[in-house]
Write a structure and sequence with these properties.
With about 325 residues, the chain is α/β, with parallel strands linked by helices. It contains nine helices and nine strands. About 30% of the residues lie in helices and about 20% in strands. It binds ligand LQZ7MJT6 and guanine.
Amino acid sequence: MTGYKVANGNGHSNGNGNTKGTNGTNGHSNGHKSADYTAQENPTYPYEVIEEIADFITKGSGMRPKIGIICGSGLGSLADMIQDPKIFEYEKIPNFPVSTVEGHAGRLVVGTLEGATVMAMQGRFHFYEGYPLAKCSMPVRVMKLCGVEYLFATNAAGGINPRFAVGDIMLMHDHVNMLGFAGNSPLQGPNDPRFGPRFPALVNSYNKDLINKAIEIAKAMGIESNIHVGVYSCLGGPNYETIAELKALRMMGVDAVGMSTVHEVITARHCDMKVFAFSLITNKCATEYSDKKDDEANHDEVMAVAKNRQKACCELVSRLIREIHLASA
Ligand SMILES: O=P(O)(O)O[C@@H]1C[C@H](O)[C@@H](CO)O1
Ligand SMILES: Nc1nc2[nH]cnc2c(=O)[nH]1
């Protein structure tokens, strides 16, 4: 089913025009014939479209990867560790969105890491880019049909828990879906049971064995004092939060706040993938009023902290993947 087009009014194109972040016609213009869908009528991608994208990747790479990785802001180097990489620019993948955010290169990298077959998104899609949630997390379904069993999702986030320092890593053991509170979900629209049930349960979404293994690895790396286990919340962005919002999130038990991951995890759990996710704390969120300029988050700082901490993040991910691979060998 080439030529499928999601008409959501977001103006992104993955074709030769490569429209990044402009407002124009909807959906994709990759030269294929297109069927018309609107976000209201059909915010989801038909199974056959996902299947077609997955075929493009598995045939193009000659691989059926077992582990999928989504690189957070500034954490694209996770994908640079992949050996014998086959690289797919998002623009060249049929019916794929394009990345519009600095620190998100917009490439899918398929290869091996610590002996395991992996596919990594060097660049994710965010709600604030104008993409509906189903489109933001569509690549997770592509991963599923490529053969992926484990999703590793990483993100840059603001630390709300006062015990967190910049550069710490928070292993996610739960989330608060603020976009869901507002009536938005990547699973909205018709449900295709080939992916999963209409009403999926989300308790135990974050795999406890993987969290425990990651803690052991962090101890072996000597970074256990920089590791926390906590609750992440995704807001729509692109603005960072007000003090009142941060206070409210803290009262709700949120430890770190960002603009991604939750809808990817929901989509992954819907199709029964095992999930491991972590937040790199790139800035401390103030929960009291002050005149300090330091309290203002900014993307340059987020990127700089991610760059400084990429070595530790890469080691954590690669050692965990090695354990998964050895356990299944
Ligand atoms: O893709 P992630 O969630 O890592 O990116 C975070 C959220 C925004 O995209 C950006 C803000 O600095 O970083
Ligand atoms: N929403 C949000 N996203 C972030 N990404 C990195 N830092 C932050 C933050 O403070 N808030």
